[in-house]
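hey
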């Protein structure tokens, strides 16, 4: 019976081959590591941006242009052209006297208006993402509408020959929305603060720090004909 003889040269060759294979695998992993990390980061970023877009859509019905590192990811697409943030009821009373040829008629009307404050999304809006910082750009908030909830004529006094007409009541009613808006002149600013607060609360779980900028729409200025050169 022949006895097996261990061959050191053959063993060294096998060890060298195994080491070469291991070195090749390790080298390939090191070379491809940035690409794999970047792919994972890109996928995670895309998923985060999609979640951010869903929050804006579900919470505010808001579909702005979304920019990530100066690259447009989603274009602006608005089905709802106004974003109402705050709603407030306010009461106004209007009294007026009208005299004609020494005869004075008196009218007093009381009304309750429901004011809706928020943003006109017909203007340009944008969300810029840079790392974990999110900057939302919107036009300044304003009172979007004044809805009549209730109104009543509290006092009517005809003059001797200067009688109250239906158009007198209509004219007074038409002035009431402006009075209600002037009474709640701070409502747009309150709407801006409420929007920023709610947006920050919604995006914080996603790891975003939020900043909101309110910029007036840019209109071309036309101060008259251009001077002749």
């Amino acid at each position: 019976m022949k006895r097996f003889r261990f061959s050191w040269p053959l063993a060294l060759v096998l060890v060298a081959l195994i080491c070469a294979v291991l070195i090749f695998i390790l080298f390939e992993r090191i070379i491809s590591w940035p690409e794999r990390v970047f792919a994972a980061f890109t996928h995670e970023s895309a998923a985060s941006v999609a979640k951010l877009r869903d929050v804006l859509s579900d919470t505010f019905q808001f579909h702005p242009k979304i920019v990530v590192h100066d690259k447009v990811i989603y274009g602006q697409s608005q089905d709802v052209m106004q974003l109402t943030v705050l709603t407030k009821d306010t009461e106004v009373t209007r009294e007026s006297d009208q005299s004609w040829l020494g005869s004075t008629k008196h009218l007093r009307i009381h009304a309750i208006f429901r004011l809706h404050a928020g943003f006109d999304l017909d203007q340009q809006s944008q969300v810029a993402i840079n790392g974990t910082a999110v900057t939302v750009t919107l036009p300044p908030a304003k009172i979007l509408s004044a809805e009549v909830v209730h109104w009543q004529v509290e006092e009517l006094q005809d003059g001797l020959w200067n009688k109250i007409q239906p158009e007198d009541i209509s004219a007074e009613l038409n002035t009431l929305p402006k009075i209600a808006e002037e009474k709640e002149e701070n409502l747009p600013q309150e709407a801006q603060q409420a929007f920023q607060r709610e947006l920050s609360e919604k995006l914080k779980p996603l790891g975003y720090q939020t900043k909101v900028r309110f910029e007036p729409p840019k209109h071309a200025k036309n101060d008259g004909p251009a001077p002749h050169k």
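DSSP finds three helices and eight strands in the chain. Helices lie at 8-60, 166-183, 187-203.
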